Amino acid sequence: MNRNSRYAANYLFTAVVWSAVIICCALLCFLLSTIIWNGVYALSFKFLLSPASGFGANGGIIYQITGSILLIAVTAIISLPIALGVAIYKSEFLKSCRLQRLSNLLIYGLNGVPSVIFGIFGLIFFVNLLGAGISWFAGAIILAIMILPTIVLSTYQAINSIPTIYRESAQALGLDTWQIITRVLLPQGLDGAITGLLIGLARAIGETAPIMFVATAFSGVDIPDSLNGPITTLPTHILALAKQATDAQALQNAWGAGLVLLCLVMLLGFAALMGRIRLKTRWQ
Amino acid sequence: MTGKPALKLVAPVVSGATALIEAEKFNVWFHDTQVLKDIAVSFDKGLINCIVGPSGGGKSTFIRSINRINDGIDGFVVQGELSFKGRNIYAAGTDVTQIRKAIGIVFQKPCVFPKSISENVLFGLQPLRITKLEKLCVVEKQLKAVSLWKEVSHRLNDPATSLSIGQQQRLCIARTLAINPEVILLDEPTSALDPVSTRAIEELMLKLKDRYTLVFVTHNIQQAKRIADKLIFICEGQIIEQGDKDKLFNQPEHERTRIYLHDEYCEC
Ligand SMILES: Nc1ncnc2c1ncn2[C@@H]1O[C@H](COP(=O)(O)OP(=O)(O)OP(=O)(O)O)[C@@H](O)[C@H]1O
Ligand SMILES: [Mg+2]
């Protein structure tokens, strides 16, 4: 290659990279501005705090907000301890190389399962096999399984990044395995777990497919008073409203609900980012 | 292979009745590589037992084997006799945490936990089994023992990572003292430190040697000259020579010992 063609290749490459960046940013800006632009008109205290009526075309989204938050809160409570257990088992007890690889395969495999498959699984397992009927709790279990890999990997990474010398120093003081787990590994792994949890929840709160067959109903739902019974969430509400797109009021409410959902997701994402930063500074 | 159980009856040893740790034909492998060969040594109470030798000779491997920190390393295999108070450390059914509580170790690089200074001192204790007052007593006593109390008494709740490296190393020693061990192993504890901190640790060793059995690994021959009582020269996994410090420095039996101790050079 002579000098000129090297310069040309260099420029070309820079141009390709920059245009990719610009396209991504432009798309993101376009999406965000559209949602904000259209959603802002729907937002009011009344919209946020009153229940939906007329299949969502009228009224607000209070029960969709509470439903979404309840669902992911229970998802978090179910998935966090399981993920901590799996991550600790993987880092401390799974010594064989082959089992390590198998566990990676399973975790990444679970992570790659399309969300609608979780929905079908829920339908077959909870509704058909167990005869549970529509149950929001079953939905939370499905979401917990769905986000499990994210939390496990992030926790495992955090635990695995603890330098060996910390383990050895704790061992040298006569701490047994359990004490090392609770006093050295968990405090450190918890940051990673929370980060993974928030990322997972940010994904879970926006999902419709895994829960729409087992956990949700489109209208006439308020706050559930038992583990059984349906729930209504922001994404399923948006889906229902979008189906009535000819109704201008319904469409505007859909934009409004979309904006609220986006804010919740960004909140979770922001919290996860903060967790990441804290994690980085903790052990040098 | 984790060594045979202690069948050997502990006959009262005539001269070294105070030896707490004894090794006899002690061998270590990492996978297929033999790292220690037929180690035979005893560490006496009230002395600073100093291990010297060139890099890669197996000094760390040996003292880490004494309190079984090497157990977690893949491919670690031991054979032969290594006993603490006459009982084989590697005998089946030995309570490893008990061994580690009785034989503390301080590593080359100070490693404090990301907690406060006083929590670091108390790290090896059962937090639920002692009262707040006892905790304060332990913290004060051990920080005084390592001459750190004056420097940090006004900021016990500060993060331990805010201390200087030399202070951190003394904190690590305080943490080890707090679990009340009988033996303290130190693996080049001063090699990351400046001369002043090094001096402080050396003085600390001299102060502690009456109450503990100390095993001190060092690269620094001048340091060995300053503080050692007994000197053990390890090279390529074997003990070349051991004995009284003055004897090794002045009339070594082996040419290699003389060359190493005087020219800091080893041709093994
Ligand atoms: N975890 C391990 N796995 C395999 N081999 C090891 C391991 N740790 C140490 N070794 C080998 O054992 C030998 C002795 O190492 P060791 O760390 O005990 O030497 P040392 O005398 O402490 O050296 P230094 O003075 O540099 O600290 C070296 O050849 C080293 O490569
Ligand atoms: Mg070493």
Essential attributes:
heterodimer, A: 284 residues, mainly alpha, MetI-like fold, 2 domains, two-stranded antiparallel ribbon, 10 helices, 2 strands, B: 268 residues, alpha/beta, Rossmann fold, six-stranded mixed sheet, four-stranded antiparallel sheet, 33% helix, globular, binds adenosine-5'-triphosphate
Structural class of chain A: mainly alpha
CATH architecture of the largest domain in chain A: Orthogonal Bundle
Number of strands of chain A: 2
Helix content of chain B: 25-40%
Question: How do the SSEs of chain A run, as a string of H and E?
Answer: HHEEHHHHHHHH
Distance between the termini of chain B: 29 Å
Fraction of residues in β-strands of chain B = 15-25%
Give the strand order of the largest sheet of chain B, numbering strands 1, 2, ... along the chain: 6-7-8-3-9-10
The percent range for strand residues of chain A is: under 5%
Major β-sheet annotation of chain A? 2 strands, antiparallel
Arrangement of strands in the largest sheet of chain A: 1-2
- How many helix segments of chain B? 10
Our count of helices of chain A gives 10
Kindly report how far apart the N and C termini of chain A lie: 45 Å
Helicity range of the residues of chain A? over 70%
Bulk shape of chain A: globular
Rg of chain B, alpha carbons: 19 Å
Transmembrane segments (chain A): 12-41, 61-84, 105-130, 136-159, 254-274
Keywords (chain A): Cell membrane, Membrane, Transmembrane, Transmembrane helix, Transport
Pfam families (chain A): BPD_transp_1 (PF00528)
Domain ABC transmembrane type-1 (chain A): 65-272
